[in-house]
């Protein structure tokens, strides 16, 4: 049975920033925490599921390992055959190294006779790097870490974590990729592969990216959702304004604002129902009256 997708469990996209993942985890953990849901087995199970998902992709290092493992599983066709990460230094490890060194059918350490051909190349590495929105607008140089296979004396391969520097062009778009030639996995008999870096722009609290459009959630009280009114909205630019909400609106409804998003792109405002941690005695009384009349 396939293990649950941690991104789906946390309700985030695969290209979400690390900060977005952390915010999603905190929100779900608070919602399903046993202290808030005493004697609720379903909530406890969900809380454990959310914790397990965060353990898998909750920090940059673990997330990179998870993504690398998923890529290797896809290369090997999923669950069929022996896992390239299985047991010790046997065939599983050799298969993994073979894929790291460019996917040859035979381990590059094994001697074989063949006709002269172009020098083999190590496999490419794909990593994602989070960038704050202000930094993405201004551009500049950032430092990040990536894991790669290096080959030392005696053609001994080892996995190492290395620091890299890369320059971000001003106004870089979310999802843009850049290649660092020769910085991928090394090959004992040839050249190193390339390192492909994808920039993830942190959308910020209550925001996310969807098909290149910045989505911002707007909390709206139930009364305003039903009767209409205005709510305050803080835009990515730092400016704020009042948003008119039509009566009989529903959670999930959207309002598009042109030139209000990242680099004057579009911004979609998505309605969500305002949640209250605690209710006052007066609110409980009024809700009881609404319940009596069918609301």
Report on this model:
This protein is of the alpha+beta class. It has three domains: 6-58, DnaJ domain (Helix Hairpins); 68-79 and 91-105 and 120-201, Urease metallochaperone UreE, N-terminal domain (HSP40/DNAj peptide-binding domain, Sandwich), CATH 2.60.260.20; 207-278, Urease metallochaperone UreE, N-terminal domain (HSP40/DNAj peptide-binding domain, Sandwich). It has eight helices and eleven strands. It has helices at 6-10, 18-32, 41-57, 60-75, 91-100, 133-138, 222-227, 281-292; strands spanning 125-131, 140-151, 157-168, 177-180, 195-201, 207-210, 213-220, 229-234, 240-245, 254-257, 267-273. Strands 6-7-11-10 form a four-stranded mixed β-sheet. The radius of gyration is 25 Å and the shape is elongated.
Overall spatial form: elongated
- Helix count, per DSSP? 8
Q: Could you state the CATH homologous superfamily of the largest domain? A: Urease metallochaperone UreE, N-terminal domain
Strand content: 25-35%
Q: Give the radius of gyration.
A: 25 Å
What is the β-strand count?
A: 11
* Biggest β-sheet description: 4 strands, mixed
Structural class: alpha+beta
Number of folding domains?
Answer: 3
So what's the CATH class of the largest domain? Mainly Beta
Second rung of CATH, namely the architecture of the largest domain:
Sandwich
Distance between the termini: 43 Å
CATH topology of the largest domain: HSP40/DNAj peptide-binding domain
């Amino acid at each position: 049975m396939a293990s649950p997708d941690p991104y789906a469990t946390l309700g985030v996209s695969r290209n979400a920033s690390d900060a977005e993942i952390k915010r999603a985890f905190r929100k779900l953990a608070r919602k399903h925490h046993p202290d808030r849901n005493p004697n609720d087995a379903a909530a406890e199970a969900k809380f454990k599921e959310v914790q397990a998902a965060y353990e898998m992709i909750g920090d940059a290092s673990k997330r990179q390992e998870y993504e690398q493992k998923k890529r290797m599983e896809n290369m090997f066709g999923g669950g069929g055959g022996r896992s390239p990460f299985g047991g010790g230094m046997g065939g599983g490890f050799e298969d993994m190294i073979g894929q790291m060194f460019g996917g040859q059918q035979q381990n590059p350490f094994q001697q074989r006779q063949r006709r002269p051909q172009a020098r083999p190349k190590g496999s490419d590495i794909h990593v994602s790097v989070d960038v704050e929105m202000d930094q993405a607008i201004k551009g500049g140089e950032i430092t990040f870490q990536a894991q790669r296979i290096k080959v030392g004396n005696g053609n001994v391969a080892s996995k190492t974590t290395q620091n890299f520097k890369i320059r971000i062009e001003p106004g870089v778009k979310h999802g843009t990729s850049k290649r660092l030639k020769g910085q991928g996995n090394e090959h004992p008999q040839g050249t190193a592969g390339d390192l492909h870096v994808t920039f993830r722009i942190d959308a910020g609290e209550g925001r996310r990216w969807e098909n290149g459009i910045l989505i911002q959630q707007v909390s709206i009280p139930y009364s305003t959702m039903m009767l209409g009114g205005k709510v305050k909205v803080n835009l990515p630019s730092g400016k704020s304004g009042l948003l008119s909400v039509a009566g009989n609106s529903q959670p999930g409804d959207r309002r598009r604002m042109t030139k209000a998003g990242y680099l004057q792109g579009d911004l979609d405002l998505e309605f969500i129902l305002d949640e209250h941690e605690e209710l006052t005695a007066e609110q409980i009384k009024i809700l009881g009256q609404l319940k009596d009349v069918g609301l």
